[in-house]
Amino acid sequence: MTPQLRREKCDVLVVGSGGAGLRAAIAADEKIGNNGRVILATKGKIGYSGVTAVACSDRMAFHATLPFTEPATEDTWFYHAEDIYEIGGKVSDAHLARILATKSAEAYNFLDSIGVPFVKNEEGYPHQFVTDGSDYARACYTGPRTAVNIEEKLVEYFQNTGVDSLENCTVFRLLVSHGEICGALALVEEEPGHEEFIAIETGAVIMATGGGGEIYAENVFPRGNSGDAFTSSYLVGAELVNMEFLQIGIASLATKLNCSGSMMRAIPRFVNDAGEEFVFKYFPEGTAPMEIYNTMFQKGATWPLTYEKETHKFDIAVYKERRAGRKVYLDYTTNPTGFDFNKLDPDLQRRYQNEMKFDLGKERRENSPADRLQEINTESIKWLQEKGIDPVAGDWVEIGSCSQHFQGGIKINSRGETSVKGLYAAGECAGGQHGANRPGGNALLDGQVFGRICGEQAAFKALKKDHPDAGTNPDNALQEEIAAVDHRRGLPAKEVREKVQQLMSWSASVVRTGEGLDEGLEQLKELWLQGVSKDENGITYALETRAMFPLAEMILKAARERDESRGPHLRFQRYEDNISLPHKDPDWQQYLVFRRGSDGNMKMERREPVRDYYYED
Ligand SMILES: Cc1cc2nc3c(=O)[nH]c(=O)nc-3n(C[C@H](O)[C@H](O)[C@H](O)COP(=O)(O)OP(=O)(O)OC[C@H]3O[C@@H](n4cnc5c(N)ncnc54)[C@H](O)[C@@H]3O)c2cc1C
To answer: What is the Å distance from ligand 1's center to 580 Cα?
Structure first.
């Protein structure tokens, strides 16, 4: 029996309450005012769900090109846009990079005006530093909790708008009529078994649903970032782009702390559960230990895996050890074999000195990674201690290769429009604005810039009040969705999800080979044929799990097609190799676009990105 369907109507529906969703809702509300209704629907509670609300790392960055930002010339924006596009590997749309750069000051000023506590100098200008992937200091910050501080202030501002909210609410299907958005199906489920289905009729939906890291077994995403919106957008005809590119890096499995920055610069031992210091095996035979430790130090500034930096050897080492069934740890109690602090590259030693917050003395610095970590970043130690791991007392930090950010996503143009009329995308779920690498600090910026653009554009469209009627569309769609996860057919959702996550973490993570990706695709197909059935975790969980399939398929197929290495996509001829295939330039300075064909099959097309910063679409 199909359950009751509550009906709601609004002019703009925003999906997601991270930085992008909140900014989009605020902008839509400002434009629509009393002439219409904006709803924000989100999984979990507003201010507590999504990456923006919880992410924390060494020093989180928000990139902005301000009037005084280096190099402080008339066209300073150009250097910012160039970093996004060039360091991105020339596989993104250059005009979207220009929009990010030129609108970054406005985005910063808005956040500053609502009280985000950016660190400032005596004159009141924000302090800016250099992040990975940039030549100039343009990263504004509040500290390790920049994202959380942004979320908190946006929530405060949002609460004074006229936007209606639906919490614990998953938007699991979009509704279209004649190729245009006419509504969405949502599901409020506070706990498994207590569910309410809602049909929301609207002509404008803004997806601001973040990345889909949960489709990997090893990830640093919070619960709920399962990627279902990539799939629901794909299923109604939206194009998706750059799906093979996602940030993967070494992180603590128990606490989800990225082991970047000082966690590497303290030079810990990388050990497996047999007590072996294994990194030597993954560097060419005869590499001097101090060469390895110089690279380890540099790994601090190039946290996500990237082909363009030698530091990816550590990612390969961690991934392969785990793949071989061994647990892997960082040990801060003892210096790694052959390490001599005084033989670190002099530039790196200077950098270390600059980062020292206090001085524990030469002897302790030379002899103990834990003491070095204390000297340069006590916050990381505190964070771990609060979560029950004490590297100073001798606890080893268990690590894995965790997914952290999706560079690709639902393809947008300069107005945040997707290829489906009435559907917009902002923030991490959107694609085309970032390439293979995403220079640090530009994801938080992205959510603010395109969140605002989408909110305004969706409001303009909504005010025309000319979208098609949803008719009986919602009832039929609901019946289909419920039947698809019927508990009498298929494998329990939990079992399916774990299998999908595992196959993604093996086939489409750090080491990608043609054979491994084919195997991944084959396993995915077999699982799909068995079906997903609702289990004790409830219907939201089952629908999310089912939606993981097209998303996983796009990532696997894009990674299979791209027979070169670029950014975080390391392609190997054979699994045994420790050196990946090179760039294929200019051939592969192109992106892969997915869409659902009229026959219902997945189509993949290789396309030329927009190269012109001034292109108008
Ligand atoms: C540890 C870590 C460190 C990072 N450091 C930086 C940094 O220093 N600088 C930087 O720029 N970026 C950084 N990033 C990336 C950046 O934080 C994220 O890309 C950004 O916060 C994403 O914002 P968002 O609004 O797009 O998505 P999110 O904040 O993830 O919000 C997504 C929202 O959508 C909701 N949702 C998802 N699916 C549905 C659905 N079907 N129905 C309803 N709601 C749904 C979620 O519940 C959530 O509310 C970091 C990320 C991590 C994990």
So the answer is: 30
Q: Is the distance from the beta carbon of residue 449 to the nearest atom of ligand 1 less than 6 Å?
A: no
Domain that holds residue 289: 249-403
Q: Is the CB of 224 under 6 A from ligand 1?
A: yes
The structure tokens 């002897």 sit at: 363
- Euclidean distance between CA atoms 300 and 617, whole angstroms: 39
Atom 5 (ligand 1) nearest CA:
60
Average pLDDT over residues 465-488: 87
Q: Closest ligand 1 atom, CA of 56?
A: 1
Ligand 1 centre to CA of 11 (Å) is 25
Task: Please state the rounded mean pLDDT for residues 356-360.
Answer: 91
Count of other CB atoms within 10 angstroms of residue 425: 32
Q: Can you give the pLDDT at residue 472?
A: 75
**Dist. CA 261 → ligand 1 center (Å):** 21
Residue 426 CA, closest ligand 1 atom number: 26
Question: Under a CB-based contact definition with an 8 Å cutoff, are residues 364 and 371 in contact?
Answer: yes
Arithmetic mean of pLDDT, 127-154: 90
Q: Are residues 103 and 234 in the same domain?
A: yes
Q: How far is the CA of 209 from the centre of ligand 1 (A)?
A: 7
pLDDT in tens, 158-195: 999 999 999 999 999 999 999 999 999 999 998 888 89
Helix (H) / strand (E) containing 461: helix 442-463
Residues 375 and 439 in one domain: no
Domain assignment present for 2: no
As a whole number, the mean pLDDT across the chain is 95
Amino acid at 2: T
Question: In this predicted model, what pLDDT tens digit does every residue of 526-574 receive, in sequence order?
Answer: 999 999 999 999 999 999 999 999 999 999 999 999 999 999 999 999 9
CA dihedral 129, 132, 136, 137 (to 10 degrees): -10
Pocket-testing residue among 235, 250, 405, ligand 1, by greatest number of atoms within 8 A of Cβ: 405
Query: Is residue 6 assigned to a domain?
Result: no
Pair of tokens at residue 29 = 């509300």
pLDDT at 407: 98
Asked whether 57 lines ligand 1 (CB < 6 A), one says yes
Contacts of 75 (CB under 8 A, 6+ apart): none
Residue 219 CA, chain-centre distance (Å), reads 10
393 and 441 both lie in a single domain: no
Cα separation, 291 vs 612, in Å, equals 41
CB of residue 451 inside a 6 A radius of ligand 1:
no
At 68, the amino acid letter reads F
Instruction: For the beta carbon of residue 296, count every other beta carbon within 10 angstroms.
Output: 23
How much of the chain is helix, strand and coil, in % rounded to 5?
Answer: 40, 20, 45
Please indicate, yes or no, whether the overall pTM of this predicted structure exceeds 0.90.
yes
User: Does ligand 1 lie within 6 Å of residue 430's CB atom?
Assistant: no
Residue range 60-112, pLDDT digits in tens: 899 999 999 998 888 999 999 999 999 999 999 999 999 999 999 999 999 99
CATH number at residue 510: 1.20.58.100
pLDDT, residue 135, reads 77
- Among candidates 255, 49, 13, which has minimal Cα distance to 151? 49
Looking from the CA of residue 186, the nearest atom of ligand 1 is: 42
